[in-house]
Amino acid sequence: MTQSEDVVPPRDPAPGWGQSLAAGAAGIALLHVENAHAGTGSWETAHQWIRAMTREPVSATPSSSGLYRGAPAVAFTLHAAGQSAYATALCTLDEHIAAITRHRLHKAHERIDHGQLPTRREFDLISGLTGIGAALLHREKHTDLLKDVLTYLVRLTEPVNTDGDVLPGWWCCDTPGGQPEGSWPGGYANLGLAHGIAGPLTLLATAARRGIAVVGQSEAMDQICSWLERWRCGADRTAWWPGLLSRAEWQDQTVRQPGPQRPSWCYGTPGLARAQQLAALALADPRRQKRAEQALAGCLNDDKQLAQLRDASVCHGWAGLLQATWRTAADATDGELASRLPILRARLSRHLDEHGQPADPGLLEGIAGLRLVQQALDNDTTLVTRWDACLLLGD
Questions:
Q1: Full 3-state SS string of the chain
Q2: Is residue 204 scored above 50 in pLDDT?
Q3: Phi then psi dihedrals of residue 281, to 5 deg
Q4: Which InterPro entries does the record associate with it (predicted)?
């Protein structure tokens, strides 16, 4: 029996674990909330995990709170539950989330005003304003605050002149996570959905498709898409994108990555293809939409790319590939992507038979996320909680 199905741990394994949507009780509770809504699990189990999520004071510190941690993460799961018992808690969390958002927007605009480059944590999905915007959009309220986030993302696309180079406004001044300072001289551009520019693109597109727009939104989407097209390697079914671009690559206008990376949700072709498909749908651009869908179809038929998947997780494994493909197929112009889903599902099952379940109980890298994806594909129906809004895959 897995930890996500078993009794709640008597204490948090690590500080802040309960409020983590990625690895902790918030993500595990989301699985049980979806089960309870779908009639495949009990509300008592869901409530137990929600209590575990909130047994420690909820963090609302602007520097450490985002979609995947603290007040926004807890609110995301409570909103998914849709229970009147949590209404008061949600109202309190909303006040903190509004304060967090305004503080971070102020800091971001101040940084832009001074002509400085951002860190990825300012704008990305996991820790930044894109993630907070995704949480606001998921709530289907706070429209004015969401528009403020969209306005910031539009401004993020404005070029910045730095050390003689005109760089995109999302060029990061720090280093990718876990890498030593100075290992990326001149900074880098991150293309991925989890940590890069594909996240802002997807939020802008999804909001537009729901009728929420600000000045310059369409132009910003077009600019990001054009930038991604510039750095696309290959064409049609052989297309792929680098995960990161160095300053030297930018100056040389040459990608040094030797070939496609693993086909993951977080950085690979599945997430990037979905982002560009949603943007194309928002911009009513069928040519761009077809190119995005062809890129994913080519990826799914490339055994060399699929062989790079080493685990079953949502973040960088088979589950994320399946969820991204399932969502992209639902909006595709033909049935090719949908026809690949049974094959991919069989590959996932084979992987689980050979390697077993993930050791982690959480959503991004563990069993909770895997189960959510398996249930979505088993039922092939609209997700009750729209839980994959936290992945920016739904529409």
A1: CCCCCCCCCCCCCCCCHHHECCCCHHHHHHHHHHHHHHCCCCHHHHHHHHHHHCCCCCCCCCCCCECCECHHHHHHHHHHHCCHHHHHHHHHHHHHHHHHHHHHHHHHHHHHHCCCCCCHHHHCCCCCHHHHHHHHHHHCCCHHHHHHHHHHHHHHCCCEEECCEEECCCCECCCCCCCCCCCCCCCEEECCCCCCCHHHHHHHHHHHHCCCCCCCHHHHHHHHHHHHHHCCECCHHHCECCCEEEHHHHHHCCCCCCCCCCCCCCCCHHHHHHHHHHHHHHHCCHHHHHHHHHHHHHHHCCHHHHCCCCCCCCCCCHHHHHHHHHHHHHCCCCCHHHHHHHHHHHHHHHHHHHHCCCCCCCCCCCHHHHHHHHHHHHHCCCCCCCHHHHHCCCC
A2: yes
A3: -65, -40
A4: LanC, LANC-like
CB 269 within 8 A of CB 279: no
Which pTM was predicted? 0.97
- Joined tokens for residue 372: 């959510």
Do residues 60 and 99 lie in contact, with contact meaning Cβ atoms separated by under 8 Å? yes
Confidence of residue 6 (pLDDT cuts 50, 70, 90): low
b (16+ CB within 10 A) / e for 51-79: ebbbeeebbbebeebbbbbbbbbbbbbbb
What would the pLDDT profile of 209-240 be if each residue is shown by its tens digit?
Answer: 999 999 999 999 999 999 999 999 999 999 99
Q: What pLDDT, in 10s, does the model give residues 18-57?
A: 999 999 999 999 999 999 999 999 999 999 999 999 999 9
